[in-house]
Amino acid sequence: MWRPFFEQYHLIIVQDGDPSKKIRVPDGFDYQLYNRNDVNRILGPKASCISFKDSACRCFGYLVSKKKYIFTIDDDCFVAKDPSGKEINALEQHIKNLLTPSTTHFFNTLYDPYREGADFVRGYPFSLREGAPTAVSHGLWLNIPDYDAPTQLVKPLERNTRYVDAVMTVPKGTLFPMCGMNLAFDRELIGPAMYFGLMGDGQPIGRYDDMWAGWCMKVICDHLGLGVKTGLPYIWHSKASSPFVNLKKEYKGIFWQEKAIPFFQSVSLPKECSSVEKCYLALAGEVKSKLGEVDPYFIKLADAMVTWIEAWNMVNSPGEKPAMTSLPNATSKK
Amino acid sequence: MWRPFFEQYHLIIVQDGDPSKKIRVPDGFDYQLYNRNDVNRILGPKASCISFKDSACRCFGYLVSKKKYIFTIDDDCFVAKDPSGKEINALEQHIKNLLTPSTTHFFNTLYDPYREGADFVRGYPFSLREGAPTAVSHGLWLNIPDYDAPTQLVKPLERNTRYVDAVMTVPKGTLFPMCGMNLAFDRELIGPAMYFGLMGDGQPIGRYDDMWAGWCMKVICDHLGLGVKTGLPYIWHSKASSPFVNLKKEYKGIFWQEKAIPFFQSVSLPKECSSVEKCYLALAGEVKSKLGEVDPYFIKLADAMVTWIEAWNMVNSPGEKPAMTSLPNATSKK
After folding, report:
1. Are A125 and B211 in contact (CB < 8 Å)?
2. Is the pLDDT of residue B191 over 50?
3. A30-34 vs A77-79, strand pairing mode
4. Cβ count within 10 A of residue B245
5. A296-311: average pLDDT
6. CB distance A111–B165 less than 8 Å?
7. Residue in B138, B140, B179 nearest the CB of A122
8. Phi and psi at residue A212, to the nearest 5°
9. Residues of A numbered 167-196 whose beta carbons fall under 8 angstroms of chain B's beta carbons: which are they?
10. What CA–CA distances, in Å, run from B185 to B173, B214, B277, B279, B308?
11. How many helices (H) and strands (E) does chain B have?
12. What is the ipTM metric for this complex?
């Protein structure tokens, strides 16, 4: 189903769980597949920052990619149709979103002013019409909405059938729940902030990987003057995960997010933090000192954030050969 | 065209310009019509705060209304149709918007979570799901978009044909360009902040009446924890006003808004300001001291803001008889 839309791009597949299992990738795709053994070999002791048995492992793909634009998608997401019945080219829309600026400093009531047939409305200050470079494009889902376990339990039959034909900028200073199901970003602008945290195997929490990345990323985008969009494109989310399993994974997160969100709403980064890496390390320090009091998990997470940046720099430092070029047999995902 | 939608409501018509001209109101409407003579008689010397020969005069209707919900609409706005061809009941949608809370503190990616078929997505903190009371509902326009004169000049043929099926909260801390063409608000929650300023006859500026009200209102809503929504309902905006006339009216505003917006983005109201009236008076003081340096017009405007609150209190004080009940012949609008 995705073939006509993905064929011309490079795929990185991060295989979660048992590395001895074989994943069959259909013919005709340019791809790399990485399993846990590859992660361990490439990162050595720093592999500890990459989650296991959780969708958070995907961020390893961001780290080893050499592309400017990354699109990440879940395996139960398929091509959606627009109201006219036409199949939606999600990637094309994400790239449009990333190539046009964001309106981070002032709200435009007619939505994305850079879109054909739209513009800035009366009263939009002219000095702000250049907008901000867009770092992240957050796409939405038709059919199964991205609900938490309590909402899934209460509304098992709810389906998202509303196609909202809009792309919005999430304004500066406003946090949002970033879902990793249908997400694109500019790796050069924001890559090192897209760490999906410590989740799954051996960790007290799951299903907060994308949320964690979203909070960290948004604070850093706000600090660096980068934009974040949400809205189009839609994908078709085919199956709801089990609300019972999800409740187990989310349980601690439901409490912790009540502390984490005020933290992210009020955290401020020092002016000297002029790169994503510097911002991320400063944020890790704040997480350790402020959220460490909430639960020791956040101390471990803060350390993993530092390890992630070390791993990023190791794999991406200009002097080093890209890890994957020395691994012709390594296969991969995203 | 509006008859089936407006018939059951009370109309206040504020007649602008020459008071000796007769306005014919179709039969069957419950209405009051106020002309300039009525404004002068009711407000006495305080009538100076009500603009003449400018759409800003409409705020006199807000002041004399005794209703909880106000809907204000321009005379070139007609009933729009949704994509299925059904006529849109704009008032019904505005009232829905005002009766359901806003999501001011956190962005919900599936838009209005209080709407049927939608909810809060995964990662939306549970403590924030009560939302904030909604004070303002800002509707949009199909056909002629609300563009400023420079954009009208550059894009004379642009029409808004995109029906975006969404209602959004404008997040706390974010300003937006509020258009008075299709606007509803809860008079009890925010009425005294809906002053449309000094525009038109004898003033150096026009077409910034609704913008001014929007900036003031948003700062006060943010301070008081009230919500502002934008999006549905659409109306059909039938004719573009002349870009040449508009440029004359807007000319100074184009420069001034570059100073006014940073002012509103950074102004903060003292904690003691616990009512809209107190907030508005504090804001008038800030306007005088901070924007007075930009142009003496803002000193005059700040004084008019104070006069407006005095007029509001005079007409609306619990001890006083409502002005209009003692004026059985007075006719009226909104």
Report:
1. no
2. yes
3. unpaired
4. 12
5. 98
6. no
7. B179
8. -60, -50
9. 168, 170-179
10. 19, 11, 16, 17, 18
11. 10, 8
12. 0.93
